[in-house]
Amino acid sequence: MAGLERITQPTLDVLEVLMEAHQNNEAIHGWAIMKATKRAGPTVYRVLDRLEDANLISGEWENLSPDQPGPRRRFYRLTGEGVPAARALVAERRPHARAPRPVTGLAPTTWIRALLAGEAW
């Protein structure tokens, strides 16, 4: 892929999270990406830097008023070029990523039985 020298598992993890945020029409901040990917901060931020350098994502600092506590967060989104690139990469390297996932909180056998019975979730 142009702009990325290598595609690592952490890169694919971050791209999956960014694709989900894109589907929800949301921007996502670095800490949320770390939590979702279960990857360490330095790993995630190196990936984000590489993706931003390749123009696949854009980052924007949030605006805080003086009375809001805490540091500003940087929110990330896939760019127009990044959306199809992320989809293509994930589809190529992780074809299973598009498979439906069980509903959280249900035992796998319950979910499978419901799926086979044609029940909608």
Can you describe what's shown?
The chain has 121 residues and is mainly α. It is built from five helices and three strands. The protein has helices at residues 9-23, 30-37, 41-53, 82-93, 108-116; strands spanning 28-29, 57-61, 74-78. Strands 1-3-2 form a three-stranded antiparallel β-sheet. The longest helix has 15 residues, at 9-23. The chain is globular, with a radius of gyration of 17 Å.
Termini separation comes to 36 Å
**Main sheet strand line-up:** 1-3-2
Order of helices and strands: HEHHEEHH
Number of helices: 5
Radius of gyration: 17 Å
Which structural category fits the helices and strands? mainly alpha
In total, the number of strands is: 3
Give the overall silhouette. Answer: globular
Quaternary state of the chains: single chain
Low-confidence stretches: 99-104
Largest sheet: 3 strands, antiparallel
Relative strand content: 5-15%
The share of residues in helices is: 40-55%
Mean pLDDT: 85
Topology overview:
Layout: H1 9-23, E1 28-29, H2 30-37, H3 41-53, E2 57-61, E3 74-78, H4 82-93, H5 108-116
Task: Write a brief structural summary.
The protein is mainly alpha-helical.
Keywords:
single chain; mainly alpha; 5 helices; about 45% helix
